[in-house]
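Still learning. Any example?
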Amino acid sequence: MLKNGRVYIYGTFVLLIVFFNFVYELEHTSIQEAIQETIVILPTTFLFIWIIYKVRAILTTKNKFFKKRLIDPLNKVGMISMIVFKTLFISVLWEVMTSYLFIDDDDTVDSGLSEGSLFLVVLVSVLIVTLFVYFFENYLTVIENRHKMKMELSKHESEKIISKYLSLKKQLNPHFLFNSFNSLSALIHTDTHKADTFLQELSNVYRYNLDYSEELVVPVEKELVFIKSYMELQRIRFKEAIVINYQIDAPKMKYLIPPMTLELLVENAIKHNVVENENPLLINIVTQGDYIIAENNFQPRKTPIGKDSSLGIGLKNLKNQYDLIHKEIPTFTIENQKYIARIPLIAPNL
């Protein structure tokens, strides 16, 4: 059957035809005859439009009847031939039906038209209806093709975004592993027992990385569990030289951020700041509105840890990730001797 939108359009068109025919009949016949004719013309006209629509669809598209299109919609000769043939066929059929149902010799005389002239009127009317259907269907086809093209482009762009996003994440994972091995290497030369414990904790931390490496985003609660495990690794190395506090609102636990975000911020704080028992590094991770904020006392090192090995990709990639998946990007500022990273939280219904 016709799709809902087409039913409304064609229904309106049929009603207009029937209305004008009713008005015409009122001027030349009685109201009773006009109503009787309208009762027959209304479903008959809609039936003919449906036939025109279906024949066009069958001949110009692949379907269960034909494995390939019989007529290319872009083939003007083929389309004109089909329109002419259908116009003649439906006109003859219409003429036979209406003559049988209401028209007699007296009607022909009263109308002032010969049988040939009446047929010409019917022929022109059917041609107008057929052309309307064809032009309207061609218009809808163009609109539908544009919509499909936009959907395909949107799908393609989404796939490109995901591919680019995962590519950026693959740059972060070696960054984390490389810095962890640097820490492990330093411990091996100073305390083998701590190095063994560190290695065990590192395997637990990396399990998180493996489990969520293909995710675009993760809930804050999962990231928080991970960063607490990560901080256990740092305490093995720095003992009391690092203090970290968490103040996360319960409703924000379900919000989303990219995996490894908090690890990146904490690692960045350790790399660029003095971490000593006399000058401990104080890190606060809190939620404020729709942001998760990681701040630390700003006490920069003269030479950041891993300056030559980090490749400077961490914070830049985090911004690039947000640029691909969210309307806001993280900001990094220094205020009142505090380094502050503001990370937008992503609503869980994304």
User: Anything to note?
Assistant: Residues 105-113, 307-311 have pLDDT under 50 and may be disordered.
